[in-house]
Amino acid sequence: SSSLNLWPAWLDIEQRKPKDLLDAFCIEDAALGNTSVRDTYDITVKGSWGIMHPEGMRRLRWDILGVFILLVDLYWLPMQVFDPPETTAIKALNWITLLYWTFDILLSCSTGYYALDGNIVMTRREVLSNYAK
Predict the structure, then answer these.
(1) Predicted confidence (pLDDT) per residue in 66-103, tens digit
(2) Is 62 within 8 Å of 106 (Cβ atoms)?
(3) Quick one: which of 49, 52, 47 has its CA closest to 112?
């Protein structure tokens, strides 16, 4: 009968308490044999100024905010059929969603991507070229 064996690094994970969520990812990935794990989760990579990592925390926060903006849009856009009065709150809501989607386009042009070969592309020229396709 075959049994499952844990990686040796997993056995001592109790001794290494993660100090934050990023550190927890690093411990787990290190257990899998990945060496430059912390670079994977950092926002920028050397030589890619202004390009965000597609799995970076800033991008994650922005995308989570986008879910809430999308929910507002899903609720509010159909309400426009009833021609609601334009109050200050509604004007502010319209501006916030407009600004979010505008900045989202700019941030998408500044976010790395995974190429077909599995490598992360973090150069501005290649990111813009990919985004323009």
Answers:
(1) 999 999 999 999 999 999 999 999 999 999 999 999 99
(2) no
(3) 52
| Cα torsion 53, 97, 77, 72: sign | positive
Rounded CA separation 99/92 (Å): 10
Please give the pLDDT value at position 35: 47
Predicted model pTM: 0.63
Alpha carbon of 126 to those of 16, 49, 53, 120, 122: distances in Å? 39, 14, 14, 11, 8
Q: How many CA atoms lie within 13 A of 65 on its CB side?
A: 13
Q: Residue 91 belongs to what H/E stretch?
A: helix 88-108
Contact 33, 27 (CB under 8 A): no
Q: Distance between terminal CA atoms of the chain?
A: 53
* Predicted pLDDT of residue 37: 45
